[in-house]
Amino acid sequence: MRIDIITVVPDLLKSPFEASILKRAIEKKLVEIHIHNLRDYTTLSYKQIDDYQYGGGAGMVMMVEPIDKCISKLKSERDYDEVIYLTPDGEVLNQAMANTLSLKGNLIMLCGHYKGVDQRVRDLFITREISIGDYVLSGGELAAAVLCDSIIRLIPGVLGNETSALTDAFQDNLLSPPIYTRPSTYKGLEVPKVLLSGHQRKVDEWRDEKALERTKELRPDLLKED
Ligand code: ADE
């Protein structure tokens, strides 16, 4: 998989890919991340990429031309499955969307800033608009990093244990059951006996039961979906 991220704040997208699982995925060549500074695609002085809104109103708008130049250059070099715009008014990210996107080959992610992009960017280039939640960030960069993480960890070979992504919370629309490690007793709190029993079928049944119980209590909305 290859992900090209277009941004006006490339520095915000450095560290997420320089540690832990995402770093290892890149080193193992399971994913390539390419960050593009939108300011490299403007011909205007002071590397201007935004301007005032037609019709008035507070906040600057990202101009169509530099974005067109950047996306068109990328598209002339290879095919892309999706051109994603990170925006608070997009479809809210969930596990099913991450699963679908993890099966794609090449993705472009465009990070919005200021008031957002000129509508013609959305009309001409964007195939999918994604939000990471009903709140407003200063820009789409952190949202793009979250989206990348949710996708990349699902690529086969990225996680050490192949099955671990499949047992994550939200796969099957369930939260995860409680988990424990040593010691078996801490400050009077004991690990449930069944987990120490060595009886795998009973352990699995207990986990299914607890996952359902937790979901009913904390996120009953998940059980109502579909
Ligand atoms: N840009 C600003 N806020 C955002 C959000 N919640 N999701 C995606 N992109 C954003």
TrEMBL record:
KW Cytoplasm (keyword) present: yes
A GO molecular function held by the record: tRNA (guanine(37)-N1)-methyltransferase activity
EC number of this enzyme: 2.1.1.228
InterPro entries linked: Alpha/beta_knot_MTases (IPR029028), tRNA_m1G_MeTrfase_C_sf (IPR023148), tRNA_m1G_MeTrfase_TrmD (IPR002649), tRNA_m1G_MTases_N (IPR029026), tRNA_MeTrfase_TRMD/TRM10 (IPR016009)
Gene Ontology cellular component list: cytosol
Pfam families named in the record: tRNA_m1G_MT
Keyword tRNA processing set for record: yes
Compartment list: Cytoplasm
tRNA methyltransferase TRMD/TRM10-type domain boundaries: 1-224
Record-listed S-adenosyl-L-methionine binding positions: G112, I132, G133, D134, Y135, V136, L137
Keyword field: Cytoplasm, Methyltransferase, S-adenosyl-L-methionine, Transferase, tRNA processing
UniProt GO BP: tRNA N1-guanine methylation
Reactions this protein catalyses: guanosine(37) in tRNA + S-adenosyl-L-methionine = N(1)-methylguanosine(37) in tRNA + S-adenosyl-L-homocysteine + H(+)
Role played: Specifically methylates guanosine-37 in various tRNAs.
UniProt subunit comment: Homodimer.
Family, similarity comment: Belongs to the RNA methyltransferase TrmD family.
Alphabetized HAMAP family for the sequence: TrmD
Name this polypeptide is given: tRNA (guanine-N(1)-)-methyltransferase
Source species of the chain: Psychroflexus gondwanensis ACAM 44
